[in-house]
Structures are given as structure tokens and as C-alpha cells.
Write a structure and sequence with these properties.
Layout: E1 12-13, E2 23-24, E3 32-33, E4 36-37, H1 38-41, E5 44-47, H2 48-53, H3 76-93, E6 97-101, H4 112-133, E7 136-141, H5 160-179, E8 184-187, E9 193-194, H6 202-222, E10 228-231, E11 241-242, H7 247-256, E12 263-268, H8 269-274, H9 279-288, E13 292-296, H10 315-327, E14 335-337, H11 348-375, H12 377-385, H13 392-399, H14 404-414, H15 425-437
Bound molecules: D-xylose (XLS) and nickel (II) ion (2 copies).
């Protein structure tokens, strides 16, 4: 079969001296870091929607990039051309996974029966490509935010009929995820939130979202889905307020409704920063709750207030991300590039160069995080910082072997406690710079 990206070769690792834009400078898949190959630390995934569907349309202008891949848009022939393009793309880059929404895969019909028939047809074709190439599915999801029927949400909709339609889409998307052997299933609550409390019953809406998730878990388990369900937190956009505001909020919600055994977090860098956190913060909160599942690898722009979904090039953030991932013992999911080229980067070559950038950035992050951990000064500092809890009264506090009255008596004897010791933030920041650039 003729290639769609005929002028793009297989992308290879050439090392940090290479000036070839179509080569990896840092991502060396077989290089062993902390006992395992880079590619096992970094299971990268292609996001079907950005890479194969989105052409750069924004509020002010139409597509700049041609994603027709030689077929007429809106047809099943185009859906197949996207599959051909996607698998050629992943194979040339060595990306081993993909993520998808139902509606990314084919043109949605007015009638769900016809949509599902099209999904069956295209998923057969995808499956044959997966078997041919060994490329796997990281996670699937249902788009329950694009169609006008979801203007008030899906699980949180005021309309029970819309709720049922969402259920039907989730059921089919779970069927597809299982058909592809996907590792996870994502809920990003695009419109699960509100614009004004004047028309919203927050308690009822949250209970209904939980009901929908519970039914999804029960159905998924009944058809043999053994992977993780994920919530992908995001605080706003498109809704003014979204219920899955950040990792802490989503974890609290899952525990409240007894869903925490089946769900983990899919943390997206740009969503964390929109919530007023660092990417590292939401990763840490997920990890300490045993819920760090997967990552949507992108970055935002601190000067813009929305989800810009840029390809990650911030090595500092990638380093802190991998530091969290390594400390958490790795991901059950992977690193999905939920990212798009900037609108003026409209060529096929740009699609490849943006993935090279993202993969090199995370490879650097891995190397630098490993160096930070092996260096040990930061971890050692943190351990020492809490050493007053390792003996004496501190030890009793941690063991739960004391009372408020005993502590008060202890404090009486102390007079004024000594200052708690310098936080040494600047020294630690210097260590990070030394590891990054030394
Ligand atoms: C949008 C989300 C979306 C999810 C999948 O902001 O990141 O792309 O990852 O529905
Ligand atoms: Ni996003
Ligand atoms: Ni995302």
C-alpha cells in the first residue's frame, strides 16, 4: 500500500548532537534507565482526535491543516484513511499506543444504531491494523460534550433521555475498548458542571454522574474489562465550573460514592495548571492516594487562561513529572499526547516534529528525574526535615500513643520551641538546576 507520509522516514535516535529535525535527540527507546528500557518507562500514546481529526479550526478561523489524508471528509473512506495515516504515523515514530473517543473514529450518524454499525465496521479495520503492527490501545472514551444534546452535560444533564443517550455511548465505547484490549477507560466530564447555580441542583447532578459511573463499571466488568477507569480532572472550560475540578476533588467524589476501587486519575498537565496547581501537585495528590493511573502529556501557557494543549517542551515540568511517576512505581496507563500543533504549524511534517519534541522532552525528563533520585540530596533533605518524628515525643505522635493533654504538658516544659529549621528552598532549586544543566 502506498504511504500517506511518503516523505517522512522512520524516526530514529541520533543523539543530542544531531541537527536532523526528523530524528530523536534524547528518546532512545532501548536505553536502560533505572533498570528498564526508556520505552517501558514511557508508554507513549497518540491522541486520535488531535492528531488525525483536528485541523486547527478556532473561534476566528477555519482549518489550516489538511487532515483529509486523500479521502473525502465525512465519509467512511475518510475514516479508513485516518486509520491508515494513524498507524503509519505511530509505526514511524515508535509510538506503541493510541487513545480515542467514539466519534473520532467515524462520522457520527443521526441515529445511534447507524453510528454503532459504523463503529463496528471501522473497529474491525483498526483491529486488523493492530494485529498487523502490534500497536495497542491505551484507553477509550465517549465524546459526551460535542453534540448539542450534551449542552447541559451527560450524567449531569437535566434530561433523562440525554442521560440514556450518554449511557448508550459509554456502553458502545466500552465494547470498543474491550475489543481493542484497551488498558483504561476515561471519563473526562467535558460538560459535567454548571454555568450558574440559579438553574442547577448540584447535589442531584453529582449523584447522577455517580450512578452513570457505577453502571459503567458494572457493565465493563460484566464484559471482561479488567483495566482501570479514569477520571480526568479539569476545573473549567467548556463549563464555567466543572465538578471534577482537580485530583483532590475527584478523589473525594469517588470515595463518597464508593467508586474509588475501580477508578484512578488521568492527570493532564494543562488541566492541573488551569486549576491553579502545578502538574506535579496533581500527580503527587493522585500518587499518595494510590490513584495515579495515566497522564495526558501536554502543557499550557501561563499567559493564557484556557486549555492550549501544547506539545510539552518544558523539561523542568517533565522532570518533576517523571520524578513523581518513578516514586509512585510507574503508571498503570501511559503518556498520551493530548496535544495539538499550533495553528500555523499545519504541515504533515509538523505532526511528526511535534511528537518528536514531546517524546524527547519526556525522555529528558526521565533521564533528569533518574539523576535527581540517584543524586539523593533532595530526597535526603526531605527525610531529615521530618526527623523530629523519628524519636521521643514525635515518635509517640506518629504511633498514636499520646494525648492532647500529654503534649500540652510537654510544651509547658519546653517553654518556646526552637525554630523548625530552614526550608532551604533555594539550595534545593539550585540542586535541580545543577542536575538539569550541570
Ligand atoms: C479536554 C480533554 C479531553 C480528554 C478526553 O480538555 O483533555 O481531550 O482527554 O476526552
Ligand atoms: Ni485538555
Ligand atoms: Ni485530556
Amino acid at each position: 500500500m502506498s504511504e500517506i507520509f511518503a516523505n517522512i522516514p522512520k524516526i530514529r535516535y541520533e543523539g543530542s548532537d544531531s541537527k536532523n529535525p526528523l530524528a530523536f535527540k534524547f528518546y532512545d527507546p532501548e536505553r536502560v534507565v533505572l533498570g528498564k528500557p526508556m520505552k517501558d518507562h514511557l508508554p507513549f500514546a497518540m491522541a486520535w482526535w488531535h492528531n488525525l481529526c483536528a485541523g486547527g479550526t478556532d473561534m476566528f478561523g477555519r482549518d489550516t491543516a489538511d487532515k483529509s489524508f486523500g479521502a473525502k471528509k465525512g465519509t467512511m473512506a475518510h475514516a479508513r484513511a485516518k486509520v491508515d495515516a494513524g498507524f503509519e504515523f505511530m509505526r514511524k515514530l515508535g509510538v506503541e499506543y493510541f487513545c480515542f473517543h467514539d466519534v473520532d473514529l467515524m462520522p457520527e450518524a443521526d441515529d445511534i444504531k447507524e453510528t454503532n454499525r459504523r463503529l463496528d465496521e471501522i473497529s474491525d479495520y483498526i483491529l486488523s491494523k493492530m494485529q498487523e503492527t502490534g500497536i495497542k490501545c491505551l484507553w477509550g472514551t465517549a465524546n459526551m460534550f460535542g453534540n448539542p444534546r450534551f449542552m447541559n452535560g451527560a450524567g449531569s444533564s437535566n434530561s433523562a433521555d440525554v442521560f440514556c443517550f450518554a449511557a448508550a455511548q459509554i456502553k458502545k465505547a466500552l465494547d470498543l475498548t474491550v475489543k481493542f484490549g484497551g488498558k483504561g477507560y476515561v471519563f473526562w466530564g467535558g460538560r459535567e458542571g454548571y454555568e450558574t447555580l440559579l438553574n442547577t441542583d448540584v447535589k442531584f447532578e453529582q449523584e447522577n454522574i455517580a450512578r452513570l459511573m457505577r453502571m459503567a463499571v458494572d457493565y465493563g466488568r460484566s464484559i471482561g474489562f479488567t483495566g482501570d477507569f479514569y477520571i480526568e480532572p479539569k476545573p473549567k472550560e467548556p463549563m464555567k465550573h466543572q465538578y471534577d475540578f482537580d485530583a483532590a476533588t475527584a478523589i473525594g467524589f469517588l470515595r463518597q460514592y464508593g467508586l474509588d476501587k475501580d477508578f484512578k486519575m488521568n492527570i493532564e498537565a494543562n488541566h492541573a495548571t488551569l486549576a491553579g496547581h502545578t502538574f506535579q501537585h496533581d500527580l503527587r495528590i493522585s500518587a499518595i492516594n494510590g490513584m495515579l493511573g495515566s497522564i495526558d502529556a501536554n502543557q499550557g501557557d501561563c499567559l493564557l487562561g484556557w486549555d492550549t494543549d501544547e506539545f510539552p517542551f518544558n523539561v523542568y515540568e517533565a522532570t518533576m513529572c517523571l520524578y513523581e511517576v518513578i516514586k509512585a512505581g510507574g503508571l498503570t496507563g501511559g503518556f498520551n499526547f493530548d496535544a495539538k500543533c499550533r495553528r500555523p504549524s499545519y504541515t504533515h511534517e509538523d505532526m511528526f516534529e511535534s511528537y518528536i519534541l514531546g517524546m524527547d522532552t519526556f525522555a529528558l525528563g526521565l533521564l533528569k528525574a533518574a539523576a535527581l533520585i540517584e543524586d539523593g540530596r533532595v530526597d535526603g533533605f526531605i527525610k531529615d526535615r521530618y526527623s523530629s518524628y523519628e524519636s521521643g515525643i514525635g515518635k509517640k505522635i506518629v504511633a498514636g500513643e499520646t494525648t492532647l493533654a500529654e503534649l500540652a504538658a510537654y510544651a509547658d516544659e519546653l517553654g518556646a520551641p526552637a525554630l523548625p529549621g530552614s526550608g532551604k528552598q533555594e539550595r534545593l532549586e539550585g540542586i535541580v538546576n545543577q542536575i538539569l544543566f550541570g
